[in-house]
Design goal:
elongated, 81 residues, 2 domains, 2 helices, DotD, mainly alpha
Length: 81
Amino acid sequence: EKPPAALTPSATAAPVLDRVALQQETLWMEGAINTRSTLPTDAIHAQSDLVAVDWSGDAIELLSHLARQRGQTFAWTGVRL
């Protein structure tokens, strides 16, 4: 008697990937993932006025823009590269 054949990862992944593709197509056709967000981009509303961010990267321009949208200013310390 022959032992059952082991399924290879590619053989088990193919049906899953087919289902994902079908689900994405369905969501696209129903307009769930192909429409623009109606959220306002010119205003930010938060429960507090103070936001602290610890970031290793180039975020000064982004954070300055976000602060201006809230009518605030962004102050940074450290070396700007």
